[in-house]
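call fold(seq) -> tokens
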Amino acid sequence: MPIFSLFSFFLLTGTCKFEHLIPDILEWQAVLLHVNQMMEAVYKCQKIWQYLLPLFTSNDIRLQMVVSAGHFDVCDDELQQVLKNKLTKHKVNIELQTIPLTCIEVAVVEQKKAHSLIDTMQECTVKLETVKNKLHTW
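ret:
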């Protein structure tokens, strides 16, 4: 989260006029921090994925590095699923009504999960870094 945003939250919590809003301010602060962590995890994974993608579209490399290609494929599927489903607007059926969700609302739901998007992206990043290191030693 940018420093000015954290500072703004800090100022709001210290102002007497907003004292009754402190619980809401702290909740939003936690949600925005979680959104930032989600986006950083996706960005870090996507950065390595973009480096490896052109290499693993070649059948020669895939045939010579079968295990690494398998790890890449798993991470590729995960990342594609995240980018397609999690970070775009969701639609959720609640009492027969379709309600679009924003990234912020998805983050609130994600915060409550045991295995979150952040965990998934961190696991993929580790796998992709391993593939990248094997590729450099190959």
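The first strand starts at residue 90 and ends at 94.
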